[in-house]
């Protein structure tokens, strides 16, 4: 068995915890303490987040998509594969080192997607970009922390509360989609989405095809 090697580390935005990038052969892992946040072999649910969202905005001219969280690029690559050449995709990543890892040790698994002319990378809080402009986005995809029950950065909780969901709905065009990835179900979050005025679908998916951990994706449509 090839041992894991730590390549780098980064502090969370509040400086309270440490993210660690590790490699074992061709496999990468990002850890928070003893919790594995993501693994380069497990991409199914993140890819589904993009695929399901893009299906619902198919046919729109020059669609604008905002992705919260770069991670290992699974959601970004899947979105680019599903969107036409006139699309624009903005990725908000709060930890600068994660962007550096994407361009450095993990460049091979990103496959050059950061250099796609449709892509803009913002080292910023996705919540700030959501609040910056009304009716700006056809789709907002949140793959931030572990979902509504986060473990990385307490500030992420604001995205999933009542005010955060109202801001997301205001930032979407009519019929636009808010898609949220989560490690597991959360009935309270489903209720908050509906109270915010979204039409909600809750979809179960797996981390690796038909195998792996069970994750949840909410597809919330702005019905205005």
Helix content: 25-40%
Let me know the number of strands: 11
The biggest beta sheet is recorded as: 7 strands, mixed
Quick check: average pLDDT? 91
Structural class: alpha/beta
Note the overall shape.
globular
Sequence of secondary-structure elements = EEEEHEHEHHEHEHEHEE
| Strand order of the biggest β-sheet | 7-6-5-8-9-11-10
Distance between the termini: 54 Å
Number of helical segments?
Answer: 7
- The proportion of strand residues reads 35-45%
Radius of gyration: 16 Å
Poorly predicted ranges: none
Task: Describe the fold and architecture.
- This protein has 224 residues and is an alpha/beta fold.
- It is built from seven helices and eleven strands.
- The chain has helices spanning 44-56, 74-82, 96-103, 107-110, 126-132, 162-171, 187-195; strands spanning 5-11, 18-24, 27-32, 35-39, 64-68, 88-92, 119-122, 137-142, 172-182, 198-208, 211-222.
- The protein has a seven-stranded mixed beta sheet, with helices on both faces. Strands 1-2-3-4 form a four-stranded antiparallel beta sheet, with helices on one face.
- α2 links the parallel β5 (64-68) and β6.
- α1 runs parallel beside α2 (74-82) and α5 packs across α6 (162-171).
- The protein is globular.
- The protein starts with a strand and ends with a strand.
- The mean pLDDT is 91.
